[in-house]
């Protein structure tokens, strides 16, 4: 994670090469400079869906634990 502090505000980012390993579709590379960049707008929507899926799993596991505790 990259962070910088300027004008009393924190800015956070991700390392494009690390993101590219798991979500290559949100990383592009400048043909002239070779610099990689992350399309944060695309990344956010994928992360929201991942959180929704995890929440469904948490709810199912919580229900299963409750069921096992009550038996």
Could you give the topology of this structure?
Layout: E1 2-6, E2 9-13, H1 16-22, E3 27-29, E4 36-38, H2 40-70
Antiparallel strand pairs: 1-2, 3-4
**What structural class do you assign from the helix and strand content?**
alpha+beta
Q: Classify the beta-strand content into a percent band.
A: 15-25%
Largest sheet: 2 strands, antiparallel
Please give the count of helices. Answer: 2
The share of residues in helices is 40-55%
Distance between the termini: 45 Å
The gyration radius over C-alpha positions equals: 19 Å
Topology pattern, helix = H, strand = E: EEHEEH
Instruction: State the assembly state of the protein chains.
Output: single chain
Mean pLDDT: 90
Spatial order of strands in the largest sheet: 1-2
Overall shape: elongated
Strands, total number = 4
Low-confidence stretches: none
Structure description:
By secondary structure, the chain is an alpha+beta fold. 54% of the residues lie in helices and 23% in strands. The chain has helices spanning 16-22, 40-70; strands at residues 2-6, 9-13, 27-29, 36-38. The strands form two sheets. A two-stranded antiparallel sheet has the order 1-2. Strands 3-4 form a two-stranded antiparallel ribbon. The model has no long low-confidence stretch (mean pLDDT 90).
